């Protein structure tokens, strides 16, 4: 258990998506599918993808700059960077360190990436919270950025319809007013069902020994049906547990900002919480599943479009490869995005 003594403030949130839009109709050029099939099963109409030399690092840099600007914290005062990156352009150097350099941070502050796939933001928030609570670091930048399109199997129509590229960022700091913005936060994993979503690193054995029977393609492999069943059974119940832990009731929380994986999964959580459509933030229609970035993108865009009023509370929830899942009840202060 974390020794909770220094309270945490969520100071700034930002996002960035690439300009290139791929519609469901565009996908019909790749394989037999239709806008109707994709939309009715997922709620997705289009997604954004990086093009040419653009990568998750470019997206993550802009998201980080936006979050830092909103936080009012000087970039040179950031003392730790955590990358939530499961489909980064390179396994190393970590995306967090590369973006830290591009931000012009002069001190040699720690920077590392962690892989919790679509639950990455919530996992990173838990790590940052622990650092801040214990006084190890004060101003932490989280960058959730993936270029999923680069590891998508574009011949597999059951997975490539889902994913899109994007980045989100969050600055967490010490709450000088003593009000902790994280009312509850829980993360979990079950590696026994890890094979539901996998991306292997293409590799080889030493040429002097017997080679492995199979070599990973480096593409996303997913058992969509199992992931769907897992999500609709585990996640809604887990969200209720996170709410109970926060000391609030579901009615007292203003918004549900879920990971944007499938509109039908979002609706299963909404039904469980008995929330009206106004309380549920969904933008999957425009971006598909942007993995760890989907929650911050939905949050900031929700504020920009007037769907979310700040000075409010929200329950976040995510799930993805691992299998990992997590939830949090947070305060959304004025001015964070
Ligand atoms: O962050 C976590 C990320 N992952 C998820 O959230 C995934 C959750 N799972 C899902 O959202 C759904 O499983 C999918 C939308 C991916 C797929 O829906 P499904 O109802 O589970 O479809 P399926 O893969 O079982 O395929 C049903 C049928 C098959 O045809 P037959 O064998 O019944 O003739 C597929 O070949 O639909 C076919 N199909 C398609 N048809 C048109 C699969 N993909 C497509 C497609 N267009 N894009």
Please provide a written account of the structure:
This protein is an alpha/beta fold. The chain has 2 domains: 8-174, Peroxisomal Thiolase, Chain A, domain 1 (3-Layer(aba) Sandwich); 182-332, Thiolase/Chalcone synthase (Peroxisomal Thiolase, Chain A, domain 1, 3-Layer(aba) Sandwich), CATH 3.40.47. Helix content is 29%, strand content 23%. It has helices spanning 24-27, 35-42, 56-71, 95-102, 120-133, 224-246, 263-273, 284-287, 294-304; strands spanning 8-16, 20-23, 46-49, 80-84, 111-114, 140-146, 166-174, 182-189, 197-198, 221-222, 255-258, 312-320, 324-332. Strands 1-7-6-4-5 form a 5-stranded mixed beta sheet, sandwiched between helices. A hairpin with a 3-residue loop joins strand 12 (312-320) and strand 13. Helix 3 crosses helix 4 and helix 6 (224-246) runs parallel beside helix 7. The radius of gyration is 19 Å and the shape is globular. The relative contact order is 0.20. The mean pLDDT is 96. It binds oxa(dethia)-CoA. The site of oxa(dethia)-CoA has 20 residues, from helix 2 and helix 6.
